[in-house]
Each structure stands twice: as C-alpha cells, then as structure tokens.
Amino acid sequence: MHEVKMNRKKDKGFESPRAVIPQCVNLLCHVYSHTTHQVVCINNINFQRKSVIGFVELTIFPTVVNLNRIKLNSKQCRIYRVRVNDLEAPFIYNDPTLEVCHHESKQRNLNYFSSAYTAAVSAVDPDAGHGELVIKVPSELWKQGDEMNVLKVYIEFSLDQPKGGLHFVVPDVEGSMAERGAHVFSFGYQNSTRFWFPCVDSYSELCTWKLEFTVDASMVAVSCGDLVETVYTHDMRKKTFHYVLPIPTAASNISLSVGPFEILVDPYMHEVTHFCLPQLLPLLKHSMSYLHEIFEFYEEILTCRYPYSCFKTVFVDEAYVQVSSYASMSIFSTNLLHSAMIIDQTPLTRQCLAQALAQQFFGCFISRMSWADEWVLKGISGYIYGLYLKKTFGVNQYRHWIKEELDKMVEYELKMGGVLLHPTFGGGKDKDNPTPHLHFSIKHPHTLSWKYYKMFQCKAHLVMRLIENRISMEFMLQVFNKLLSLASTASSQKYQSHMWSQMLVSTHSFLKSISNVSGKDIGPLIKQWVDQSAVVKFFGSFAFNRKRNVLELEIRQDYTSSGTQKYVGPIKVTVQELDGSFNHTLQIEENSLKHDIPCHSKSRRNKKKKIPLMNGEEVDMDLSAMDADSPLLWIRIDPDMSILRKVEFEQADFMWQYQLRYERDVVAQEESILALEKFPTPASRLALTDILEQDQCFYKVRQGACFCLAKIANSMMSTWTGPPAMKSLFTRMFCCKSCPNIVKTNTFISFQSYFLQKTMPVAMAQLRDIQNLCPKDVLNFILDLIKYNDNRKNKFSDNYYRAELIDALTNSLTPAISISNEVRTVDNLNGDVRLILEEITRSLNMEKLLPSYRNTITVSCLRAIRMLQKNGHIPSDPSLFKSYAEYGHFVDVRVAALEAVVDYTRVDRSSVELQWLLNMVQNDPAHYIRHKILSMLGKNPPFTKAAESPLCNEALVDQLWKLMNSGTSHDWRLRCDAVNLYYTLFGLTRPSCLPLPELGLVLNLKEKKAVLNPTIKPEQGLDTTEMTGNTMGVHIPVMGFTSSFNTVEEDEIDMESPHDSQAFIHHHLNILERPSTPGQHPVKHPARIILLSDNLVLFFSRTRCTSTVDQAVLSLPVTPLPSSFGKESTSSSKHSGDHHHHHHHHEHKKKKKKKHKHKHKHKHESKDKERDSHAFSNSPASGRSVRSPSMSD
C-alpha cells in the first residue's frame, strides 16, 4: 500500500465539530463515535498468491451531532471503496509508522528516532480517537444529525502477501494446498488486528461480531464465537463458515486460522474443540487430555463459569509466540504437542494451556480501559496461573517459580533502571517521560522492547501476590469474582455505551473494588510498586550479644544505584534457634540500621534434645559445628518474598549448611546452595552430598546442589580425597552392582531420579584437575554412559537424557594447547578430544536417520561443535551452522545454529556473517526466527558502543537505521528488537563511526535563532557567502517554523468534493513551476500522483523545498511538544494536525520548551487560526512534509 504524504494545512471539511465537544479530561475524549457491531467477511483466501479479499461493515453510533469524519485503523490493507449508508465516501490513508524518520533525513541518533517513533504511533493511536484511515462522512448524512442516526460503514479491502498480521505457511512439497498442510493464521503483538482488516484497533472499543470466511472445501476456518452454520457453494468446491460472537469484544481480540485441520472434540467437555495439522491427532489427544482439569480449577477458584459458550485451541506451525489468546480461542505453537513418552515437555505444555485459559477470563473477556491499565489484566491472569501451578505441581514448584521470576525481574530492573507498571503522562516536565533511563518510550505497547514487556508481565503478577499478602487470598478471589460478575451482567445487555464499560478494567476501578471488598487501604503498596519503578536492595549482617542474649541485626539499603528505591515499612525476619523457629516483624525506618531481636533459647552443649523446625517437625542435629556461645542456627530476611528485593545476607558457613540440610523451604535451600559456593570446605561438601542423597528433597534443589558441588570440588582441588565428586553417588544410584562402569537399563518411572540422572553427568563434566583439564576418569565415565545407554525396556523417551550427555561432553572441553605454526587438522587432535568429536559426529548422523523429539540431540551437537571451534580444537568455520540455520529445519535447530553464527560473528569479527544474519532478519519467512536473530545479536553483540571495531562502519549504521526506520513497520516486536540492537551497538547519540556532518545548525530556542554550529569551522579558502547561502537553504524542521512552500494558502481548495480534486492537483503543479526562492532554481523531482479511490486523487511531491530563514518566520511562537507529549496540546493537535505524518523535529526531547497554553475558543479569530496552523505545521505528529538535510547533534 502506498503511503500518502499529506502536504496541506487543515481542510474545513475534515475539522472536528468544535462547537459540541467540551474539553473533557476523560481519556477517550477524542472519540466521537462508538462501534456497536462489526461484520468481517473474507470471501477469498488464495494460498498460491498469499492474498486475501474481503469487506468489513461497521455499525457506528455517533456520540456528537453532525459527525463528519470517522477514523479507523488499517495497516497494509489495500482499500478499494468506502461507503457510508450506501453513499460513496472519500477517504485518506496515511500511516506514519511506515517510515518513521524521512528517508532524506541524515539523522542517525536513537534519541531522535525514539521520539519520532512515539509520535508516529501516537498519531494513529485508536485510544485517542486517531487512525490510519480517515473517512469523510458524506454531507447528505449530516442533516439527520439531530436524530443521531446509526452509520453503516462498508469497506472493501484486500491484502497481498501480508508481512504482518496474517502468516501464510505453505510447505514447498507436492500436492494440493490441503495435502501440503498449507495454513494461515492471524498473529501480532498487542493490538495488531489492523494488519488484516480495517477496525478500531483498541482494547477499550467493544462491539459484537459476525465473522464469515469462505475457504476451499478441504479447509477449515476457525475464528472467535459460535459456529452458526457452514454453507457450501453450488459447485461444492468452497464453503463459508459463519461465526457469531454476541459478547462485546475488542477488535484486538479477534483472530482467524484456516487450514486442513484435524478436529477433536474434547471428550470431557463437548463445547471445547481442538484443531491440529494433519497426522498430529494422536499427539493432540494426549496433550489435551487434562485441559478439563484447568477449566474446573479456574471456575472453582473464581466461582464463576467460563465466560464464552465455546473454547477452541488451534495448533499452527511457525507460530509468532507459544501462546496467543483471543476471544473464545487460543492459537498455540504446534511444537507444544507431545506423546505420552515425553517427560520434559509435559509440564511446559500444561503451563502454556493454563496461561491461555487464564487470559480468556482476564484479557479477552475482561479487557482494559487503556494501556496504563494493562498491568491489572496481566497481573490477575499471571496470579491465577500461579495458583494453578501451586495446585498442580505443588508448593515447592510454586515457590521456586516465584523466586525465579523475582530474581529475573530484579536483575533486569537493576540493569535497565526499572520497570514502571502504571505510567501516567501529562502534567509536569517529569511526567512527559516517566522513564528517562530507558532508550524507548513506554507510552505505547508498540514502542516497548520485548524483554521489557516480558519483565512487565512478570512484575505485574508479583505485585498481585504482594496485594494478596496484604488483603488475604479470600478477599483477592472475591475481587476477581466481582469484576467477572459485573462484566458478565454487562455483556448480556443490548448496546448501551455505559453498560459495556463494565467489561473494561482500569487501575482505579480495580483499586476501588479492593477497598470495597477488603476494607483495607493498599495505597502505600500501590504507590511503592505500581506508580514508581525500581526494586529494593538489602545488605544484612548480624552479631550475637551473649550478655544480653540478643541478636543484633544490621540491615542496610542501597538506594542510590540505578533501578533501586528506598524502602520504609515492615520486614519479616525468621530466626531458627535451638528451641524452635521464631518470626519477627521489624519496622524499617528512614535511618534505622540496627535492630535488636531478643533470643528465646540459651546456648546449650551436650544436652541431647530434638530441635523443632518451622513446619512443626522435630529433628536431631549434630551441633558440633555451631558457635558454642550462640543459640542461633540460621537467620532469613524476608523469607516470604513479600518485598520486590535483592537480599545479600552474611552468615557463617555452618549456618548456611544447617539451613540447607534442615530448612524445609526450597527458596531457603536454593539460597544456601548459592552461598555455599563461597565456602569450599569438607563440611560444605558433606552437606551438599547429603542433599543429593535425600529422596524427599525437591528435585530442583538437588539439581542445583550438583553444580555447586562441582564448583566446590574445583576450589578444593588440592585437598580433595576420594573419587571425583558425584561419581560414586551416580554409580550407586544408577549403575549395575556387578559392573559399576555400566549403567542400568533406563526406567524413568521416578521423575525425581530421572532429573538427577540427567543433571549429574553435566555437572561432573565441569570438574577440573591440577592441569585445568577434565579428569580422564570423568570423561571416560561419560563416554561409557553414552556407550551403554539402553532404552529398550523404557516406556519413556530418553532423547532429553541423551542430549544432556552430549552437553556433558561439551562441558568437559578445555582450550587446546597450541603449538606455534601447527595447522589444526583432525589427524593431530588430542586423543580425548578425538573421542568427543567422534561421538558428536555419530550422534549427528544418527539424528538424520532417526530424528529425536524436537531434534534435541542435533541442538546439543551443534553447541558442542561450536565449543570445539572456540576452544581451538577444530578450525573455526560457520558454514555448517549456516546450512542448519536455513529455512526448512526444525525451529530449535535453526535457533541453535544461529546462536553459533552470532557467536562466530563476535569472536571472528566477521562482517560477511553479520551481513548474512541481517539479510535473514529481512527475508526469513518465520517471524520468530527474525525476532530471535535480533535478540541474540543484542545479547551477544558483534561489538559494543564502548569498543572500537572494524565492523562498526557507516554502511552498517545505515542498514540498521533503515531496518528500524522502515524495514520493520509490519511487526512491532521486530522494530523494537532492531531499536534494541541499535542501542547496544551505538548507544543513544550519533554513532561514533559516522563522519561529522559537513554543516550543521544549532537552534537556540530561547532566543528563537538559528546559528551555524560553532564546532564546525569553515574550511580555509571557502567563500563565506557561499556558506551562508547553504545555511539559508537548509529547511529547519522545528515546531513553529514553516517553510515558504507551506505558507501558500491552500485552504480555498476543498479536497473532499470530487470535482475539486483535479483543481487541487493543478494548483500544486503550478506551485512547483514557480521558483521557491527568488534567484534560486527550484530542484525538480518527479511528482507522484496516487489514485486512492474512484473519486479522490492525492498528490505529493518529492520536491525538497529551499526556504529563506528570515526574522518573520523565526519570531513565530514556540509551541509545546506535539500531541504525543503533553495533555493540553493533544486537543490542539487534534484540530489542526489531522493528517498525522512522520516528519520529525530533530531533538525535541532535549530542548525544554516553554509551556504554551491557549484555551480553544470555538470561534477563532483569524490570527489565532493562523497561529494554530503554524503551531503544528512541522510537529512530528502533524501532516506537514518536512524534508531536511542533516543537522549535527
């Protein structure tokens, strides 16, 4: 679809009806109409051409008299005609996100791009009543305005080879499309429905739906709502699926997938249907066999029925994400399906199903009022998913998950400077950008980095857990029930705008509901964790005062470094003494560090008495290790994780050992394992070995103990006695009694011991001897495990176990000892390495004959080969990985191969490989792979902004700039990935490898003057007049400055009436003929004319206009930031900058603007009107075309 550049001031027909609209503060103040019902009819899906043809019909209810234009969202759709109540209607299509900064702009700094991108997204933001498609309501329909008649907007559109929104998977094999398994499905990040049909793409605009899809007779179309009927055409070659969704739903929650699916009706719940690609039905049956349990669990805790009348799961190939939830259906990756033989995938698939179902209640059925309220939905769905996890997988798994999520989020916040759950904009200077520490804006979901959004979801559910700690789970579930029951009452009403708003949740309504139900004030908690970003960092240490029998605890905080905040409030401390475990709640004040905690027990020696633990258990302990004077066994700060924090606590090694052995909470055990790495002593070794032997200990704790034991063994190398760590244990548990080096035949009946058997060899391979090599007997032991592995009698697959054994071989590798000038060949390989290489080659070849589930062994082999290369055993060469990364291989294999290529690029500084990767980002058919390449390059960058590198050159800067500026407009996530990579490589300012711009202007906004950049000295012998001439020719893109081209009055032309469009073009052609500045010849560029519909021609020129910067222009008022940056300016941009465009003022973030307020009087005097049109003439969000040569930063 061509982008259409508007180069006009406001046109009268398109102005907002000013007389009626009060300046309300409501977020949706710009929305002059509500959609009440929408029909989507796709009557042709062509898999050969990857095209879609259809129409939509929106029933729109105006909320103002004389509604004269309608704004809708639509991206990449080609629009053929628009009719409003059967009358042809003119329309304008303009998508400023196609190209964020104009291609002629030489700007290359990220600050500039980020603000330009935010403004472009704001310009078409449906929540503010904007859109890419502006339709003029025919004037015949205005007359009936007083009755507020319903408008029916009918739009015919097509999509040709869509790059986003819909994904066609067409395998390149023989046979018809159905035989080839060709299918198509909708996808996207956040609200992306506009990519495949015109709609109001906002989560807060609800309406009822009728969906019709005509497909080949061999295909099935799955969409939201109830399938009412399926009608065949006369020739029986096609059939139409009719779906109806009577529950008001946002367009963003509508989806479609079409393919030759096999269908399975859930045997336990007949209203649930599952769809998968041909020949996968047995896997589908097994994977879905426990879905009904998840339904029962959610319905029971929420005391509320599942809100829709049906639920559909569709499994597709090349999915964008593992799980995407839409109203009454979810689209999953087909890679989640597994048979009964697979152990490791089972819990992962169950977790994905549970997440999808939680989002049906909160996310699809209950939607959000605005982006600022997203945290409530993500928080509630994540929180109830956690409850499911606790019930199904047990409290240990749940607490382990909470600790994992908390650690991940804390690490991210400390690195990036914080995650803000509830951003508020407008107000003061600080409010315009509440997160100055980030290199992207958090004003819209579409400008966020993917990692940030992941951490945002993680923080949201952790905060919900903090609220539950504060008000109790019972009240928490009552609040959810109240939200759901209000929504389900509202959903059954006929359209009344105020009723349906009960189906939208906002931060305010959620908090109000909490205080109504629980009667508790959680204001401080919300202020601390929701309204501000950052986490808390505690350091703890203690001393025992024997005289007073008091524990003197010191808790310090670091609240100055990035991503940290100061905590004031209660904190729980658990002290395990000889007489039992005691909880103390301390109050952290502004400056109190020391806390005295009285001890309950006196120290005692020689008295044999059992020691009571936290859970009421009484155990015998060997107390010989502990301090004779002190009754303290161990101390824990904030054991319930009821603060979002990082704790570093210092206590003696024997206390950590007691904590590991006897504390029954998995989080405490994991903390002590981490701490014991610093205490390599025989006592630590014993404690860890004991844990490994305890069958009742949680398996993840035992897995952690394996790796800790390997680290301790390496530190104790010289004093270690006996066989290598874990070897005798492994032999005792898993090998034959008669022949200890032969492993027993596999029976993975006990999952606990299966996970231990998988992990131990991998940890053992990390052991090193005095020469820093892997001990010979460990290596032979691992090779024997591979050699004698026998899975014949096992009912479970051993593919994950075999893959881990290859990982163990990889871990055993150490750098090669290079002899100078020696050519590395396979012949002169070290003997041990040769054995490893042979084993890897054999496994890789076996995989080709008998592929394992998800190709786990290939993945491990590729990693191993890369490690052999990195350690200098075999020549470093990316060609093997490049062949495995090609499209057609299984996705996990491709990702592993690409990871190796990314690593090669960094180590060998290879520009060829970097180019190859970037080409793949632009051309690969699979969206997930493109995303992975960019995120892997971001994690393991070829160079960083800190270091010089031959890879850093102008061509690369241009290529990446082009990629994020216009190459990724079809996929929000990919664009943000590109921004992240750009930031990692070059930082926020102009990349260092670029030459300084030859000429720059410095804009002094306070004095409203443009000055030659003082840092750029004119060259000797250069004529100064010539220079000034150049300067004056620069078109200055600053808000409030206009070019001579733009000052030509264009208001007389009414572009909307068809008979005037020719006049409009002639007028512009005439302007082109005149010289723009006396004495200078205008630069002639071919003009482009685009036919948009039968009766509307739009024209834009490629002319770069020169303009004289004279005092008259410079003295125009300086305006505030454009609509995307401040509340009070939004209204004015609404009236004057309708055709939003993406030309950007260079550094408007850095310059502090004076506040410029003018209340909109409805009848402007002409001067005011003049000023208004200048004010936004060149603002990023306005429709002004600004061409600008480079300006220095």
Write a compact overview of the structure shown:
The protein has 1193 residues and is α+β, with helices and mostly antiparallel strands. It is 35% helix and 17% strand. An eight-stranded mixed sheet has the order 5-4-8-2-1-11-14-13, with no helix packed on it. A five-stranded mixed sheet has the order 16-17-18-20-19, with helices on one face.
Structural account:
Keywords: Nucleus, Transcription, Transcription regulation. By secondary structure, the protein is of the alpha+beta class. It contains 33 helices and 35 strands. Strands 5-4-8-2-1-11-14-13 form an eight-stranded mixed β-sheet, with no helix packed on it. Helix 7 packs across helix 8, helix 15 packs parallel to helix 17 and helix 17 (about 750-765) runs parallel beside helix 19 (about 800-810).
Task: Fill in the keyword field for this structure.
single chain; 5-stranded mixed beta sheet; 35% helix; disordered C terminus; 35 strands; alpha+beta
What is the distance, rounded to the nearest whole angstrom, between the alpha carbons of the first and last residues?
A: 33 Å
> How many distinct beta strands?
35
Poorly predicted spans: 1-30, 1001-1193
Report the sheet-strand fraction.
15-25%
Shape: globular
So how many helices?
Answer: 33
Strand order of the largest sheet: 5-4-8-2-1-11-14-13
Average predicted confidence as pLDDT = 83
Q: Mind describing the biggest β-sheet? A: 8 strands, mixed
- What level of helicity do the residues show? 25-40%
Radius of gyration (CA) equals: 33 Å
